[in-house]
Amino acid sequence: MQRISEEYEGLSKQLKVIAKYIEEHRPTLVLERITDIAQACEVQPSAIVRFAQRFGFSGFSDMQALFRDSFAPAQGNVNNYQKRIRTVIASQDTPLSNTELTQSFLSACQQGLEELSQSLDPAAIDAAVELLYKAENIYVVGVRRMFPIASYVCYALQHTQKRVHLISGLGGMYHDQVRSIRENDLMIAISFQPYGRETRYCARVASQNKAKLLVISDSKMSPLARNASTVLTVKEGTAFAFRSMSSTISLCQALFIALSYRLELVIEETQDAGAYDD
Question: Which residues form the SIS domain (predicted)?
Fold first, then answer.
């Protein structure tokens, strides 16, 4: 998956579609037939074979075997749940009650959190906390649906000694708010498909100014991931065509707690060392 992410931009249009499908379905890829994947991607089975060979495998079965260890039957319930919700909507003779709608949406949130818990990448989490810890200034950007989460991240980080800047774009001032980012700074870019134009612009500026970039997104193949120092991926639960934000906000809260824990440990170690010297 790391190689696919690194080489994604150089793939043909067909192979990009296949790459995205594999990333989204890797927990259950070992169960799927090549014809099923081809149909879902609207390509010929031979394109799946070409994709596998592009990354050094003899064919589809050889590549499929690589995902056997990551097979997780429980994660397949996320997609099944979504299908059940759609089926319920289509099959209801009478409208659902407010309580039933609420329970269904909360269940989708729970499914998203469960998937996030099972798919966490420890190395990526450690790298993200390291970026936060070392940054002189932290810039945070998220637009439209992700703006409330970006605002929360700023609110939380302002409880540390870090200098934190929310790129709000108020008055159309995205360009002005991001232009001061520098080499020892960090930008946190939060964006999901279709990936906000403003967020992509800010990420480009951060890269051009040699700042570090922490991306929170739904795919390691998103345009934001291209120049990222670290990417944290989140697959939100969905119900009634609405995507939850519970997994993303939970991940951001966890990052803040991890950073605070590390900063507090450093303070304690410094104090202990000083006491020992005295």
Answer: 128-270
